Amino acid sequence: MTSSPDLRDRFRGALIGLAVGEALGAPAEFLSAAQVVERYGVIVDMVGGGCHELTPGQTTDATDMALRLAESLAEHGAHDPEDVMRRYRDWFEQRPRDVSLTVRTVLLSYRAGTPWDLASRRAWEILGHPVAANGSLMRCAPLALLYYGDAGRRRKASLDESMLTHFDPLAGWACVALNDLLVAAMQDGLRERLPAVAASLEEEDRRISAALLEAETAEPEEVQNSAFVVDSLRTAVWANLRAATFEEALCTVVNLGDDADTVGAITGALAGAVHGEAGIPARWLAVLQLREPLRAVADRLAALAGV
Q1: N or C: the chain end with fewer CB closer than 10 Å?
Q2: SS3 at position 17
Q3: Nearest-CA neighbor of 21 among 232, 265, 224?
Q4: What is the three-class DSSP state of 187?
């Protein structure tokens, strides 16, 4: 692979876009679409507030965990699950303002002495086998960067990373799909390669394959920002297929409300891979609080990937 400034800009866009999507969507979290309109009109700017009382441009767990994953990958040059888990534990010890029930249960179990490779199963048992949520999907984008040129290692790392917190393999296959699509998007092939990515997952989990194909033809009333990993993936892909710009994709998703910050993060990562950092509105970048650390680690991953 040869160096490409445009490609490196897309590496940056994927991580920064993730954070932008989370920050933009946070005020709409847990609101219905109608309630978003009542409170904000249409969200087009970083307004802050919401249930976590954020300042404009502030992010929460999706960006925090993605950044820690990215820093681990950059330091080790590979996915080291044990190191990643330690970083998540250290972050959790700082008492972040937003941690999902699944991730919280995993990290409490790990902190109490459960081995890192058993903690997600233990949490799954404690919580009563919960439906696969989007907590690993929201943070997995750094793996697409490090393993940009190695589909096999990218797939394995995506599954391993998801399993750290989400024992249901459905969540892992969603991460595989998203990371394959991030690479396709960085190569201007999101729409063209979507059917092939879907076909490659049909034997692994037809729910993921079907969700990708449904995203091509879904009507607005057929998508939702639920925390169920299949819904989150479908919405993020759908928004990027129908949008001409980064801004259009993100505004479409966050104004749906519900799990707007997390689905915003997933959508933003994919939109950033399509449009690059250069395609993210300057008014959003100006207030994004973690832009520089994300940009720096994206460049480190690009160098490791030979970009």
Answers
A1: N
A2: helix
A3: 265
A4: coil
| DSSP-assigned letters across all residues of 20-58 | HHHHHHGGGTT--HHHHHHHHSS--S---BTTTTBPTT-
The tokens of 17 are what?
Answer: 């876009």
Q: Looking at domain 5-304, does it have CATH number 1.20.1290.10?
A: no
Alpha carbon distance 290, 277 (integer Å): 14
Task: Give the tokens for residue 150.
Answer: 């190695």
**Predicted pLDDT of residue 201:** 96
Q: Give the separation between CA 85 and CA 89, rounded to whole angstroms.
A: 6
> What's the whole-model pTM score?
0.97
Q: Nearest Cα to 81, choosing from 14, 162, 141?
A: 162
Q: What is the pLDDT of residues 203-251, one digit of tens each?
A: 888 999 999 999 999 999 999 999 999 999 999 999 999 999 999 999 9
Instruction: Classify residue 58 as left (phi > 0), alpha (psi -120 to 50) or beta.
Output: beta
Contact (Cβ atoms closer than 8 angstroms) between residue 95 and residue 139: no
Cα(104)–Cα(29) distance, rounded to whole angstroms?
19
Neighbours of 5 (CB within 10 A): 9
